[in-house]
Amino acid sequence: MEGGTQNLGWARGARWYLLVVVLGAAAFAWNLFGAETPQPWRDEAATWWSTRRSVPELLSMLGSVDAVHGLYYLALRGWVPLFSDSLISLRAFSALGVAVGVALVMLVAVRIFGPVAALGAGLVYGVLPPLTWAATEARSYAWTAALSCAVALAFWWAHAGNSRARWVGYGAVVVLAVHGFVYNLLVLAAVAACLPWVQARHRLRATVASAAAALACLPFVALVASQSSQVRWLASYPVTAPDLTMGVFWGTMTTAQYAGSAVLLVALAVIANAWVRGWRRAALAYVAGWLLLPLGVIVALLPVAPLFHRRYLLICIPALALVLGVLVDRLAGLWLRLIVVTVVVALSLPGYQRSRDIDSKLSAWPAAEQLAALAHPRDGLYIVDHDVNALAWSFPDQVGGLVNLSEPLTDQWRSRELFPPSVPVANLADRLGDVQRVWVWSQAERVDDAVAAFAIEGFRQVDQVQAKDRYRTNLVLLERAQ
User: Domain-by-domain residue ranges, the chain?
Assistant: First the structure.
């Protein structure tokens, strides 16, 4: 790679690594703050249900559903015994993913651009709206971004030594990252983008290692593709121009989208100028490719394979931090650099605040609140079909005093299904006991069959409430006939 103008000596010592740790810890604290406030939703319930399985049950389940998050679920097997399976604990694991991403992006940046760019990238990484959102989400997305950083670090580490062992290590990191989230395979586009500008003696080994890693990932990619029915809703997901050009990088807040995009355009212009001048062309091509090409591939596939969602493109957000880090590096003067970092932080604050609102997620919380206001202690609760909201875990204060009638009779579902199916009403005789009132929790179109089945068991409908949530939850009150 082309040489640079910065002295990296101090960035190889203990002080540099201490700074990396400090910024990572600060990012963890910043992203954990307020993370417990948003009410949980179904995707997070799926994560919690994954923790209720043994490893053999989990591996068996992944063969039929949710393989794309399998590595994340397995990682939680080490986290939950230490820190519990509470909502804040699972979200803290995501905040840790952002902190690890800060450290990794700084290690990448200091290697390919120098310490000033690394400091700038580390400062903005932990505040970028997609990542502050991911820190409040008990899903794999924060770690997905960190794994894409690991791929970049492994590539440039292998490039520096160019030994066979290092390229094998790089390939192994690629395989790990793709198994962490399959879209990380698109990060290899960044490698393709920079190959024309790396030294010729590195090019063949980089190409072979990347191709071998991609081939090794094909069985996993095929498994994930076989489960694509899980995301068939993407076919009707509204994809807008602002989403593709701004929302991916700057979240959903309009001010941040427009102002942040303006800052990004300035940064890309600075990068283009640096590239023309011959400054670190291979590294600049890698970062620009990492930022833009995965999105470009997804957009190109939209007519035949609707696979776009903002959260899936979190693999590109570390590249955004690096681009902004380069902008900080190329500016002359400390004050200009501080202004850029301050502007990015200020633009990110509205998204940070919004991601920590109580209703920021598509949650069943309003329905749980209405149920709590209407139910009596020891009322029965029957969830039609599947407990996709993990109600007892998600809303313990609201449903904790109710008798869960729909819990499966056996654990066999754990090896096959993501969510627990409700026991048929006809099999509830032993559970109904002294229960005099039952609340049926159901989607609107599924409630009638359950009410009819309870009628056979001696219960009659006395009330029905349309909950004020976005799932159109129906709450139907049944009483035992006298």
Answer: 9-355, 365-480
